Amino acid sequence: MSGSEHIIKSYDSELTRLTGEIVRMGELSVTQLEAAIDVVDRRDERAAQRVVANDDAIDQLEQEISHDVVRLLALRAPMAGDLRNVFAALRIAADIERIGDYAANVAKRSIPLSMVAPVAPTKGLGYLAKLAAAEVREVLVAYRDQDAERAYQVWKSDAELDEAYTGFFRQLLTYMMEDPRNITPCTHLLFMAKNIERIGDHATNIAENVWFQVHGEPLDKQRTKRDFTSSPELGKLGE
């Protein structure tokens, strides 16, 4: 094997290892989200604190991946498409780290939520989390397989999460208007739901990076946005 062939093979194996680490980090972030929803359902403060503490593992992985990327840039000096792969890894790891943060935020909010009387809309949070978790898992597969079309489908599917979030938002506002005692728990749920909606946004960021990684150009299509929570229409709910 010539020196250049050895360098290429070595670079490929390092990039494969880096991709595997990022996918593992992504799976950990999804597990965190599912654990956060579980503690909401069980109203378990101690378990919620464990979920929050576990976010450190995702942060540590992101730091290790950033270090690996810098080392790869310094030692291999990748060009063109290879450089896209390396920078995509860095950006995707950052998005996953934020997903982990949002999952931890959901767990944090579940602690004060468990201290007030339960409200019926709480169950709707699980549906939002299910959609978000599916998005993240699907985009991780797209990243692992370098499947731009699969990434594009995830990018489009975020509209479903936006729509579900808007519906949940409306439901919570209605509950708060019907009974002032619902204001405190529903406010916590509003913040938790927004965190989950943001997880979907980061999944679309990853999808865009996968598209760019494969095609070398931005995903410039127009995505349907169905988050209408800042729409003036919501002011008509009490009419």
Molecular structure report:
The protein has 239 residues and is an all-alpha fold. It is built from six helices and no strands. It has helices at residues 3-42, 45-76, 80-113, 122-145, 148-178, 183-215. It is globular and about 65 Å long. The termini are far apart. Keywords: Cytoplasm, Phosphate transport, Transport. Plays a role in the regulation of phosphate uptake.
Number of strands: 0
First-last Cα distance:
76 Å
Helix content: over 70%
What portion of residues belong to β-strands? Answer: under 5%
Q: What overall geometry do the principal axes of the alpha carbons give?
A: globular
Low-confidence spans: pLDDT under 50, at least 5 residues? Answer: 1-7, 232-239
- Return the average pLDDT rounded to an integer: 89
Q: List the total number of helices.
A: 6
Q: What's the order of the H and E elements?
A: HHHHHH
Major sheet details = none
- Estimated radius of gyration: 20 Å
Structural class, by secondary structure, is mainly alpha
Task: Draw up the topology in text.
Blueprint: H1 3-42, H2 45-76, H3 80-113, H4 122-145, H5 148-178, H6 183-215
Helix pairs in contact: 1-2, 1-3, 1-4, 2-3, 3-6, 4-5, 4-6, 5-6
